[in-house]
Amino acid sequence: MAARPPRRGPAFRPHVDSEEVAVAPQAQGRGVGKGLMAALIRAARESGTEVVTLDLRR
Question: Which of 38, 39, 42, 45 has CA 20 to 30 A from 31's CA?
């Protein structure tokens, strides 16, 4: 039996789901969150990730 190629489409693309990311109140407004997300996106790109999502709640 021949191996099936990997399934494609939004649900099967290499992805990262970021949830419950927070910056301490005393560190807010100092670029900590921006730096954290930039590092996550850079690492995701380097590992071949195609989709990054962030669950944002206020």
Answer: 45
Alpha-carbon distance 43 to 26, whole Å? Answer: 26
pLDDT band at residue 24 using 50, 70 and 90 as cut-offs: very high
Rg (CA), the chain: 16
SS3 annotation, the chain: CCCCCCCCCHHHCCEEEECCCCCCHHHCCCCHHHHHHHHHHHHHHHCCCCEEEECCCC
Q: One-letter amino acid identity for 49? A: T
pTM, whole model, 2 decimals?
A: 0.67
Angle CA 24–54–40, to nearest 5: 75
